[in-house]
Design a protein that fits this description.
Layout: H1 10-19, H2 26-33, H3 59-71, H4 77-107, H5 110-125, H6 134-152, H7 155-170, H8 179-196, H9 202-218, H10 224-244, H11 247-263, H12 271-289, H13 294-312, H14 320-341, H15 344-360, H16 368-386, H17 392-409, H18 418-436, H19 439-455, H20 462-481, H21 484-504, H22 511-529, H23 532-546, H24 552-572, H25 576-595, H26 602-619, H27 622-638, H28 643-663, H29 666-682, H30 690-708, H31 711-727, H32 733-752, H33 763-775, H34 783-798, H35 805-825, H36 832-848, H37 851-866, H38 875-887, H39 899-902, H40 906-914, H41 921-937, H42 941-962, H43 966-974, H44 979-990, H45 994-1004, H46 1007-1015, H47 1020-1025, H48 1027-1044, H49 1059-1078, H50 1093-1096, E1 1105-1110, E2 1115-1120, E3 1127-1130, H51 1136-1150, H52 1157-1181, E4 1189-1194, H53 1216-1219, E5 1221-1224, H54 1228-1235, E6 1251-1255, H55 1267-1278, E7 1282-1286, H56 1292-1301, E8 1304-1308, E9 1311-1312, E10 1322-1323, E11 1330-1331, H57 1332-1338, E12 1345-1349, H58 1367-1374, E13 1378-1382, H59 1390-1402, H60 1422-1435, H61 1440-1443, E14 1446-1450
Parallel strand pairs: 1-4, 4-5, 6-7, 6-8, 8-12, 12-13
Antiparallel strand pairs: 1-2, 2-3, 9-10, 10-11, 13-14
Length: 1451
């Protein structure tokens, strides 16, 4: 067995040694335990002289013994007596030896070992060579000598024990069951001799190994002797490995020791020494391997911990240094295991042990600094692994203190590991700076790292790490202080690291970090000096980094840097070939990564998909980019949560915004804002990511404002930017951009919303913000040109036609100065500001008339076009600008132009822009708008008509793309000039094509109602051709209509964040695709296209329709009859200004009380003279009978005037109400729908409708209407079948429900017009209003006739008079074919009289006989009934303003 460790009590091992006798074979055990023989020991017969050694025995005695045994003379009595005396003496000596052994076991008196040895030797030297006990006694002597050698450290005893062991062994031949035990004794003794000689006599070790190996071969695995011998053999093989270095010995030793470890379970007496031996062997083996596997580490840690428990529980005793060494082994192994598995529990356990080691060390212990350093390293790893958890900061603080304490011990010496401590301290301080943003930490980190760099050996690999962290620290200090020398120093350090990696460590795992950090620094340097080559270098570094074996997180960081580079190249519009190649490589890399599932989880998959989407977008593969964007959103919706979720949402929002910029699909911007708002709401105050998220949101909101012109979006952007300015330090990059963004927003607010409530910033404040940003953007900074551009744009906006001309010239001069400086700093191929500067020179030309300015404007605009790729969406805008510049050149100045500019055809450029396939729909329809008016100015009627057709198609597309709700579409329409449709119709008239004029007016007006009508398209014929397609189209139509009339979408952009808002986009695209499919079918080529005149003409079935076109070119009336060509009536005495004047005069007259009647008469006379009389004359020429029905379809503001009441109002002259029965229609399509025969018209004539009357004399919070009761009574007396909802019963729900059950309805209540939001115009019910959208949504299948006895029920909208958004129009769309409404506020007392007269006429046939084929009650008689009623009211002497208020709409 192994000698006891230093400091171990040898007495414990003697117990073990003597106890081991019990495990031998039965024969040996009996021999060792008894000492008796068949001969009895006779006291007193011990020989007087006993020789102590066989060497002193006389030759005669020896010879005598031999003779006795050889001759058999033992039978001789003398001989027998002699033998008896010797046997007795032998027995007594054995008894003495046995007694000494027993007493030694009790008191451990070493002198007893002497008695044992001497007694046994004497017994063996007696001349009894064949005595049965001699073999046993020889073994006893060997054992006694062995014991004495171990206690008195006498190597002579060890050597003698081996002699006797071998002598004893010689008596156990092969096959003897006792031989294995004897072999064990011999092997152990020889093993002890080898150790006693200090391991210098290898022959002893070889003998021991041979003896132990023979035992192992002889014994089965479950034999107790086998376990002991396997342990001894393992120990000997381990010693031979240490002597000779043969790895096979060590491997075999560990094999035997592991075998014993299984048998000597915890609690076994020899478990402790076994663990010591086994762990030492494993340490030696692992020392060979250098790197241990996780399983190997787990194994040795288990043994270390068990051994440590034996010491700490007192089962085994060791010195303090030995215990300290063992704890250090446990801690170090746990730390190594953590590095393998990244298991926080292993690291925490290692940290605990290292803390225990330090606490056990006395002050000044030589290993204390090293342990402090190691503990600090563990804490650093623990901090990194916790990833910013609540208690991680304490780990970082403790790590810093450990490193500082270690350095304090080494402050006066250059310890060989001091540089490593300085490195770790620098890394920790850098991390604490990141957390606390304290500059001192960064300064200390740089100081510590520089000191480490001075003392680290030049060959040391960690020198690269020191250089790397020095580079990152200088980079951080640059970002904090913006000192260019820090950035230069960072790049210098990182380039040195990069060069060393390339030469000596081409595949080092840290190389990717250096490449990434260097790339980030170079990108910052590009932002300073604008050298595009730096961006290309960064792309090269990232590509090199991606070729390295990277963790998924490192791949993501590299791809983000690559994305930033692509963005810089894309914005700079530089080296498109290089960008194309780099994008292609990156896209292939990402597709391979995603296809091979080379990512850790769905979060990483989403990130990869997002980068792939963005790169495809940069490359122009927009359809593919859209497909991948849907996939990443799907992952976001179902897979992610937590902090990473919001990080990737922030990224996908940026990608969606990029898609929006490339495609102008508003859906992308909506989704980007949706996701970005979710990110901002998740990043609470104090989150370092919040400022960046706020800034991104502000960018998207600014774009939204540019599209939507909504003040609330701009206000939200301003609030985001103001918070960013508060959260970030003065020189932070994001803060500087926010400062510039705030100036931009305030500028936009000032010129787009000059009448907005709230605080408005002056031009000086805005300019000050821009100047502050410029102070931190020296020449060469890539942001400086953009800031100069924005400042120039602000000053451009300050140019006001109301300002003095000279002041405007000064402003435009400054604009040009800023833009020219911006262009000098930009890449020559940067065209955005070149385009704006061209516009500035054009403006200065207009102000000053200097031919240089207009030539310069041409030069810049032309150059911008030359530098814009043909497939770039912005090319359309630049064509349009060049066309506008050319168009603005006066005839006088044309001869002074450069010839190439003089020959520019603006119409051709406008046309190119309008038809550019990749330009946004908005840019295209704006170009078509300019094209139309340019063609008009140049007298090109054919071109102008083509322009209008292009414009109306594109505008309709843009309206549907941009806004899902009718209310928001209305806002958009109100911001677009309405006159283009009227001018187009005028052009068609000039071209002699009156039919086309009618079609143009039909296409360009009532767009909102037309869109809704599409969703109600008749699908019966389509269902016969393709039932599945018809059903799907019908479902889509229903969904789109639901979105269009959705009340919660209001008149705002669709940013309520409802899922339905975004679903609308998908459904809309599906609708368009389905419509395209339908048009491929035979007979459906014109499905849902604008109806041709031949179809529209059918609306005139019951009488002529007079369409009045109010154009600035000329005004005309077009009389359309069912069976003839349209008739043109030029209104030569009418002008737009005249109509506007009449609207104003009428409004003033209506508000003037009774005294206003004369003014109203004047308005009616003007209408007669200028418009109605020429039409009436033509009607008479066309043989249209008097008292027949006619329909008016006015355009523009003419729809706000009472055409139906026009007349000369002089004695003996007929007025229009006396000649014809007038009705109104918003469009021919609306009248066509109203005239369509449905339902009951096909039934037999005796039909009596039930009329629903809603009567509200007292509405909460409204003025009482006393006449409602009178009106109710008169209607009850007149209408045979009447249902009533009166007062409290007239709730919103009850009214809507009743409307669905009745075909006729009469409202007598308050009516309210909402000027700002006409869709909120409503009828006041008991609980809540019934507004236009409620009516549209009601879906009234049986509706026929509605009488609205309330104020403002047919009042037009002055902003969009041609859209006809009022209550009467809503009822007409909902299904009512015939509607009576009011144009203005009505007198309460008029309601009962008019209602009574109308219903008397409508029900005049009830109770009377009717002719066959006649209809008992016909809603189409409502116009005539109203004409009779109002003329009666007129004749009763009421003021003219009261009776002209009532109008009829529809069939």
């Amino acid at each position: 067995m192994d000698p006891p460790p230093t400091g171990e009590n040898p007495d414990s091992n003697v117990k073990s040694e003597l106890a081991d006798i019990e495990i031998y074979s039965p024969g040996v055990r009996r021999a060792l335990s008894t000492g008796n023989d068949t001969a009895r020991v006779v006291p007193g017969e011990v020989p007087e002289k006993i020789t102590l050694s066989h060497h002193t025995q006389s030759k005669s005695e020896s010879r005598l013994d031999e003779e006795i045994y050889e001759t058999g003379a033992e039978h001789n009595e003398v001989v027998r007596g002699h033998i008896r005396r010797l046997s007795a003496q032998f027995a007594e000596l054995c008894s003495v030896a046995r007694g000494a052994q027993v007493r030694f076991m009790k008191n451990r008196d070493i002198s007893l070992l002497d008695i044992m040895v001497e007694s046994t030797l004497k017994a063996l030297h007696l001349p009894l060579p064949r005595h049965a006990r001699r073999r046993v006694l020889t073994l006893n002597l060997a054992t006694s000598l062995n014991l004495r050698s171990r206690f008195v450290k006498n190597m002579q005893d060890s050597e003698r024990s081996v002699v006797y062991y071998k002598a004893s062994l010689s008596q156990y031949q092969a096959g003897d069951p006792e031989r294995p035990a004897m072999l064990t004794f011999v092997g152990e003794a020889i093993q002890n001799i080898y150790r006693g000689h200090g391991g210098i006599h290898s022959s002893y070790l070889e003998d021991a190994i041979n003896f132990h190996r023979e035992v192992v071969l002889l014994q089965p695995l479950d034999n107790p002797v086998r376990a002991r011998t396997s342990y001894n053999l393992g120990s000997c093989l381990q010693m031979r490995y240490m002597l000779k270095g043969n790895a096979s010995d060590l491997n075999e030793a560990i094999q035997y020791l592991r075998e014993v470890e299984v048998l000597w379970v915890p609690g076994h007496n020899n478990r402790g020494p076994l663990l010591q031996t086994l762990t030492r062997a494993l340490e030696l083996q692992y020392g060979q391997q250098r790197k241990l596997s996780a399983l190997e580490l787990e194994e040795i840690i288990k043994y270390y911990k068990e051994e440590l428990q034996l010491y700490t529980t007192g089962i085994m005793h060791v010195s303090a240094d030995t215990l300290l060494s063992l704890i250090q082994k446990v801690a170090t192994s746990l730390f190594e295991l953590f590095k393998k598995q990244q298991n926080l529990s292993h690291l925490q356990e290692a940290t605990k042990y290292f803390r225990e080691i330090i606490s056990m060390m006395n002050p000044g212990h030589q290993s204390e600094p090293q342990m402090l350093t190691t503990l600090g390293g563990c804490l650093q790893h623990q901090y990194d692994l916790k990833g910013g958890a609540q208690d991680s900061d304490s780990d970082l603080e403790e790590a810093i203190q450990c490193h500082l304490k270690a350095l304090n011990v080494w402050q006066s010496e250059i310890h060989h590991n001091k540089w490593a401590v300085l490195l770790n301290l620098g890394v920790c301080l850098e991390e604490r700076y990141v957390n606390l943003n304290q500059l001192q930490d960064l300064e200390d980190a740089i100081k510590s790292l520089k000191e480490a760099l001075q003392i680290v050996p030049i060959y040391q690999h960690e020198r690269l790490s020191i250089l790397h962290h020095l580079g990152t620290c200088h980079n951080k200090r640059y970002i904090l202080q913006y000192q260019i020398q820090d950035l230069e120093q960072a790049i210098q350090y990182l380039k040195e690291v990069q060069a060393l990696y390339s030469e000596d460590h081409p595949h080092d795992s840290q190389k990717s970090l250096t490449l990434h950090s260097l790339g980030s620094c170079l990108l910052l340097q590009y932002e300073q000096d604008g050298q595009i080559q730096r961006v290309k270098d960064v792309i090269g570094f990232v590509q090199e980094e991606l070729n390295l074996p990277l963790k998924t997180s490192d791949k993501i960081s590299a791809l983000q840097l690559l994305s930033d580079c692509f963005s810089a190249l894309f914005v700079a519009n530089s080296d498109s070939e290089f960008l194309e190649q780099s994008l292609t490589e990156a896209i292939i890399y990402l597709k391979d990564t995603i296809a091979s599932h080379s990512y850790d989880d769905d979060y990483h998959k989403a990130v990869f998909l997002n980068h792939l989407t963005r790169f495809l977008c940069y490359k122009g593969n927009l359809e593919e980019a859209d497909s991948f964007s849907r996939e990443v959103i799907e992952v976001l919706a179902h897979q992610l949560s937590g902090g990473n979720f919001y990080h990737v949402i922030n990224d996908i929002a940026g990608t969606l915004n990029q898609l929006y910029q490339r495609t102008d699909k508003f859906q992308y911007l909506e989704e980007a804002i949706l996701y970005q708002k979710e990110v901002v709401s998740s990043y609470q105050s104090g989150n370092p990511s919040r400022p960046g998220a706020l800034y991104n949101l502000s960018v998207y909101l600014i774009q939204l404002t540019q599209e939507q012109s909504r003040l609330q979006d701009l206000t939200e952007a301003i609030n985001c930017l103001e918070e960013v300015l508060i959260l970030l330090p003065i020189k932070d990059h994001t803060r500087l951009r926010a400062l510039e963004g705030l100036a931009f927003c305030l500028d936009m607010k000032m010129y787009q919303f000059p009448y907005a409530s709230g605080k408005l910033s002056s031009s000086e404040i805005i300019t000050g913000y821009y100047q502050e940003a410029l102070n931190y953007q020296p020449p060469g900074n890539p942001r400086r040109p953009q800031t100069l551009s924005n400042l120039g744009t602000h000053l451009y906006h300050c140019i006001d036609s109301a300002s003095p001309r000279q002041q405007n010239i000064q402003r435009v001069d400054r604009c040009i100065q800023y833009f020219e400086e911006a262009l000098q700093l930009m890449s020559p191929s940067y065209v955005q500001d070149m385009t704006i500067l061209a516009g500035c020179f054009h403006l200065r030309y207009i102000l000053k008339g200097d031919i240089y300015d207009i030539n310069r404007a041409f030069q810049l605009a032309t150059k911008a076009i030359q530098h814009t790729p043909s497939d770039h969406p912005s090319l359309a805008r630049r064509w349009e600008l060049l066309a506008l510049i050319r168009q603005g050149v006066s005839k006088r100045a044309e001869d002074l132009l450069i010839p190439s500019y003089k020959n520019i055809d603006p119409n051709r450029l406008f046309q190119q822009a309008a038809k550019h396939p990749l330009a946004s729909v908005k840019d295209r329809f704006m170009a078509a708008f300019s094209w139309f008016f340019s063609a008009l100015l140049s007298g090109q009627l054919e071109s102008s008509l083509a322009a209008y057709e292009t414009y109306i198609e594109l505008f309709d597309q843009w309206l549907l793309i941009k806004a899902p709700s009718m209310r928001y579409r209305h806002v958009i329409i109100s911001g677009v000039p309405q006159e283009i449709a009227f001018d187009a119709a005028a052009c068609a008239i000039e071209a002699g094509d009156i039919i086309k004029a009618v079609e143009y007016l039909e296409q360009g007006r009532t767009l909102l109602w037309s869109h809704l009508e599409h969703y109600h398209a008749p699908f019966e014929l389509l269902h016969e051709a393709d039932p599945a397609l018809a059903n799907e189209l019908k479902v889509c139509g229903y969904q789109l209509e639901s979105s269009a009339i959705s009340k919660h979408l209001s008149n705002s952009p669709p940013l309520s964040m409802d899922h339905e808002v975004y679903k609308y986009r998908e459904i809309s695209e599906r609708w368009n695709a389905l419509v395209s499919q339908v048009r491929q079918l035979d007979g459906f080529t014109k499905f849902l296209k604008a109806p041709a005149f031949s179809v529209l003409q059918q609306a005139c079935f019951n009488g002529p329709v007079i369409v009045i076109n109010m154009s600035s070119r000329h005004c005309d009336a077009i009389i359309i009859q069912k069976d003839s060509d349209p008739t043109l009536v030029p209104l030569t005495g009418t002008h737009l200004d005249d109509i506007a004047n009449l609207v104003t005069r009428l409004s003033c007259a209506l508000n003037s009380g009774p005294g206003g009647s004369a003014w109203i008469i004047g308005v009616l006379r003007s209408l007669w003279d200028d418009i109605v009389e020429p039409v009436v004359q033509k009607l008479q020429e066309l043989k249209v009978p008097l008292r027949s029905r006619i329909w008016w379809c006015p355009t523009s503001n003419l729809g706000l005037l009472p055409i139906h009441a026009a007349g000369p109002y002089r004695r003996n002259r007929l007025n229009l109400p006396d000649m014809y029965i007038s009705s109104y229609t918003s469009s021919l399509s609306a009248l066509l729908k109203a005239n369509t025969i449905f339902g009951r018209e096909k039934l037999s004539s005796p039909y009596l409708p039930r009329v629903l009357m809603i009567a509200q004399p007292e509405t909460p919070a409204q003025v009482k209407i006393p006449s409602v009761l009178d009106e109710l009574e008169r209607v009850q007396q007149t209408v045979p079948s009447l249902d009533t909802l009166f007062g409290e019963k007239a709730t919103h729900e009850a009214v809507v429900s009743a409307l669905r059950a009745h075909s006729w309805v009469h409202f007598s209540c308050h009516g309210v017009q909402q000027i700002d939001d006409p869709f909120k115009s409503c009828l006041k019910l008991h609980d809540r209003p019934l507004n236009v959208l409620d009516i549209i949504e009601a879906r009234l299948p049986h509706a026929e006739f509605a009488f609205l006895s309330a104020c403002h029920t047919a009042t037009g909208d002055k902003k969009t008079p041609d859209e006809k958004i009022h209550l009467a129009a809503g009822l007409q769309f909902a299904g009512f074919r015939s509607v009576i409404g009011t144009m203005y506020a009505m007198a309460d007392i008029d309601g009962p009289q008019v209602a009574e007269a109308v219903y008397k006429h409508l029900f005049r046939r009830v109770g009377n006989e009717i002719s066959e084929g006649d209809i008992l009650v016909d809603y189409r008689d409502a116009a005539e009934a109203l004409n009779i009623a109002t003329r009666a009211l007129r004749d009763s002497g009421v003021p003219v303003g009261r009776w002209i208020n009532f109008i009829h709409i529809g069939a």
